[in-house]
């Protein structure tokens, strides 16, 4: 269920790395807990993030939840199409990246969970 090419946080974000960049989103588990996503508040391109820092919020019919960066880096892209149609998070959360960051310390990813470890966490 959880793509093996991603790493996962205990806060239910995923990061998919390609080269020096990583795309970040929320997991299927997170979107199911939230319910219907209706709004995303995402950062500006160029913002510097530290691992674990809040980079925005996701609002659903049930709650507003913080989004946390799984790695340190600089926001190099924001998925504006997703911000305009946030409900896509519910239909395909692992293809619905929110931000893309240029990684400052790729070694930080070693502290994240594999798909198998994350699956065990959310059982």
Topology overview:
Blueprint: E1 7-8, E2 13-18, E3 21-26, H1 28-34, E4 37-41, E5 48-49, E6 54-60, E7 64-68, E8 73-78, H2 80-84, H3 88-91, E9 99-103, H4 115-121
Antiparallel strand pairs: 1-2, 2-3, 3-9, 4-6, 5-8, 6-7, 8-9
Task: Offer a few descriptive terms.
three-stranded antiparallel sheet; alpha+beta; 123 residues; OB fold (Dihydrolipoamide Acetyltransferase, E2P)
Number of extended strands: 9
Helix content: 10-25%
Strand order of the largest sheet: 1-2-3-9-8-5
- Look up the CATH topology: OB fold (Dihydrolipoamide Acetyltransferase, E2P)
- Tell me the Rg in angstroms: 13 Å
CATH domain class name: Mainly Beta
- Specify the overall morphology: globular
Quickly count the domains: 1
| Corresponding CATH superfamily | RNA polymerase II/Efflux pump adaptor protein, barrel-sandwich hybrid domain
Strand content: 35-45%
- Assigned CATH architecture: Beta Barrel
- Average pLDDT number: 97
| Distance N to C terminus | 12 Å
Return the string of H and E elements. Answer: EEEHEEEEEHHEH
| Class by SSE composition | alpha+beta
Structural overview:
33% of the residues are buried. The radius of gyration is 13 Å and the shape is globular. The mean pLDDT is 97. Strands 1-2-3-9-8-5 form a 6-stranded antiparallel beta sheet. Strands 4-6-7 form a 3-stranded antiparallel beta sheet. By secondary structure, the protein is α+β, with helices and mostly antiparallel strands. It contains 4 helices and 9 strands; from the N terminus they run E-E-E-H-E-E-E-E-E-H-H-E-H. It has a single domain (7-121), classed as RNA polymerase II/Efflux pump adaptor protein, barrel-sandwich hybrid domain (OB fold (Dihydrolipoamide Acetyltransferase, E2P), Beta Barrel), CATH 2.40.50.100.
């Amino acid at each position: 269920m959880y793509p093996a090419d991603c790493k996962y946080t205990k806060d239910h974000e995923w990061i998919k790395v390609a080269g020096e960049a990583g795309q970040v989103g929320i997991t299927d588990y997170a979107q199911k807990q939230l319910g219907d996503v209706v709004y995303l508040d995402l950062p500006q391109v160029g913002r510097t993030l530290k691992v674990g820092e809040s980079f925005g919020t996701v609002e659903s019919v049930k709650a507003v939840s913080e989004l946390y960066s799984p790695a340190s880096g600089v926001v190099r892209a924001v998925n504006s199409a997703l911000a305009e149609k946030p409900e896509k998070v519910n239909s395909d959360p692992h293809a619905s990246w929110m931000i893309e960051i240029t990684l400052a310390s790729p070694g930080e990813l070693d502290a994240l969970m594999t798909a198998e470890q994350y699956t065990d966490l959310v059982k």
